[in-house]
């Protein structure tokens, strides 16, 4: 029987399922945290968790306390829910590794394989994350502003009358184009617009399957994920890279490092670029979507933000005018407290990032309340959305309140639980040493775009219905909406 014939594939899938089911037959032993496996072999409680993650975990928390183990898609994950216990991940950092988890994910999702065995490459690539902070970050921001100017100028020309489109489609297009131009530069080709649109569509096609790609299912069995992956890696082949001009410092530094570890022609260099491009847009797109969606549905938020922007423009002697003429740096962006509060409120409501570590050796961890045993090869995770939805920390957590992070005209940074001040209260970017290195850029990019859109355009939402999140990014980042939402915009007169 040919391995790739239909019966061959069915047999391979059946064998795989059997192996996966056998791997998930573990029982609770003395000292283990409570173990909740659900009814379904291998899948465990995946479906219940995916349907209503917060509600499901809250129910389990009432029954079992703040630490318990769940079987989710073939993986045993011990959740630590009390925010004062998040530190356990730091305290036991020697035995709890992010690296193995992250590298396995990179190997499967992006075909970046060398990181699995080469610590030096990993170390060097982490070293250049400094180019996403400080002075290089200021340069990136100046470039975003310049690139955004071109996008806004075109839109201003095309929207003298109302332009109707959909929020997610609009945000995808703007964030993808802007981020690519800022980080990778300009594609030198007459049809560069078409090339970028095609790249974006391939990215969306791949990204739609990301939750499955991160599971144990071989990527070859997930629709066209493998061919999309290949195509996206191919986009960054040596020959094609030479046609992209104006790389940012971070991309140039990464390329220098990659050339030290690979032959120049090695396709895995392209895989690293693809992974970085994915990281730079995959969460920023839905975050931008929700920011616009909530602003459009909350006129009081829109008004407060417009006032803040008008006040800033007046105080810095800048006029809105018809053409694009705005200047602002990171410090100025950060002084806009309502703008920041709106973005934090979006993160609070829409981020479903967990932070994971692989347990490298059997180990007993001592929490404030008890000791519990963790097993080698399993996962331990914190899930900050539980904190984000905790009514003791955030009153009426289900509501969007644009000024939740403003107090007396200043940024509000103190939040309490059980009468104790919380060290962490908004955590969309992971935790500890592996926190997202692009977080400053992401926040600045969203702030800048909202600032420019509100300065130059009027907006109206057309489908003003409540919208649910689709949970396709559960544990992995900012959620996507269940459907897109129509809106219209027009250049201000
Ligand atoms: C709203 C937007 C963003 C969100 C919510 C987000 C969130 C995250 C999260 C949760 C992680 C994993 C951290 C962990 O598991 O401990 C991560 C990693 C990462 N992010 Fe972001 N991110 C965003 C934007 C960006 C941007 C704009 C860039 C780059 C320009 C970026 C680059 C990266 C990279 C390179 C990593 C992997 C870090 C490593 O190698 O350990 N991210 N991000």
Automatic annotation (TrEMBL):
Keywords: Cholesterol metabolism, Endoplasmic reticulum, Heme, Iron, Lipid metabolism, Membrane, Metal-binding, Microsome, Monooxygenase, Oxidoreductase, Steroid metabolism, Sterol metabolism, Transmembrane, Transmembrane helix
Pfam families to which the protein is assigned, alphabetical: p450
Gene source species: Dipodomys ordii (Ord's kangaroo rat)
InterPro entries per the UniProt record, alphabetical: CYP450_sterol_14alpha_dmase, Cyt_P450, Cyt_P450_CYP7A1-type, Cyt_P450_E_grp-IV, Cyt_P450_sf
Protein name: 25/26-hydroxycholesterol 7alpha-hydroxylase
EC number(s) given by UniProt: 1.14.14.29
Compartments reported by the entry: Endoplasmic reticulum membrane; Microsome membrane
Taxonomic lineage of the native organism: Eukaryota, Metazoa, Chordata, Craniata, Vertebrata
Cofactors named for this entry: heme
Record's GO cellular component terms: endoplasmic reticulum membrane
Family: Belongs to the cytochrome P450 family.
Any GO MF annotation of the entry: iron ion binding
Residues that coordinate or bind substrate: 108, 283
